[in-house]
Amino acid sequence: MLCPPPIAAPSSLWSARRAFLLAAGAGAMAPAIAQVDVGTSSTLRKLIPAETLERSAAQQYQQMMEQARSKRALAPDDFPQLQRLRAIAQRLIPHTKPWNERAGQWRWEVNLIGSKQINAFCMPGGKIAFYTGILDQLKLTDDEAAMIMGHEMAHALREHARERLAKTQATNIGLRLGSQLLGLGDLGNAAASLGGQLLTLQFSRSDESDADLVGLELAARAGYQPEASVSLWKKMGNATGNKQGGLAFLSTHPSGPARIEQLQANVPKVQKLYEAARKG
C-alpha cells in the first residue's frame, strides 16, 4: 500500500535524473556506480509543510497501533517476524538520507499487525507497518521483504503523499498554483487533518515506478539480492488470483509484465552495489 514516500541534496551530487555514485573502497577498489534514474520531485509538494504532514502521520500511526494493540493484533517486541523486519529496516535506513535530507531526523518505527491482509506501508516521517498476511501468504524471503520495505520507504522519501495531497488541496481550495505564498496557511492547516487519507491515496504510475527503483537501490546498498525484486512482483502477480485475506497492497500496487520488465532492466545497474555491500 502506500507509504505514503523528497529529495533535498546538494546540487553538485545530483543530476536532473538522480544518478548515484558509491565508493566501494579506496585505492585498488573501483567505485560501484548505480544508474537507477528517477525524475525530480515536484516542487508542488512544498505547498504543504513537511513537518505538519509528518506530525499528522505520526498521530494517525500511533492511533492505528493502539487500535491493533487493543485487539491483541500488535506484535510484541520479541515476536520473531517483527524482529526480522526491524533488522531489515536497520540495514536500509542508513541509505535513506541521500534521497531526502529530512530522513536523518525521522524517528523511524517498524511494527507488525496480525491480519490476513496482504499489505504494508510507510507513512511520511518513516512510520512503517507490515501485516502478517503479506509475509505468510507470499512466503517472503528476507530479500523480498526488503524490496517491499524499500519500496514503501521510497514513497516516503520521495514525498509522494505530500505531493498528491498538495495537488488535491490546491484544487479544492481553488488556489493559483503559481503563488506558493497564497493560501499556504490554508494548505498547512488542511494537512493537519489529512492523516486519515494517507492510507487511501492512489499513487500514479510514475510514483510507483520511482518507488520501485529507489527501493531497489536502497535494498541493494543494504546487501539484499536485487533479483528478489523480480521474484517479489512475480509472487504479487500470482497472488492476484487469490482473494483470501484481501489484496489491499495489490489494489494500490498492481503487478504486471511492464513492472517486472522495468525491474529486470534495472537489476544489473545495482548489482555492483549489492556485491560491494556483501563484501563490506
What would you say this structure looks like, in words?
With 280 residues, this protein is mostly helical. It has one domain (11-279). It has ten helices and five strands; from the N terminus they run ββααβββαααααααα. The protein has helices at residues 50-70, 80-92, 132-137, 142-157, 160-173, 184-192, 205-221, 228-239, 248-252, 257-279; strands at residues 20-22, 32-34, 109-113, 120-123, 127-131. The strands form two sheets. The protein has a three-stranded mixed beta sheet, sandwiched between helices. It has a two-stranded antiparallel ribbon with strand order 1-2. Helix 4 (142-157) packs across helix 7 (205-221). The chain is globular, with a radius of gyration of 18 Å. The two termini are 32 Å apart.
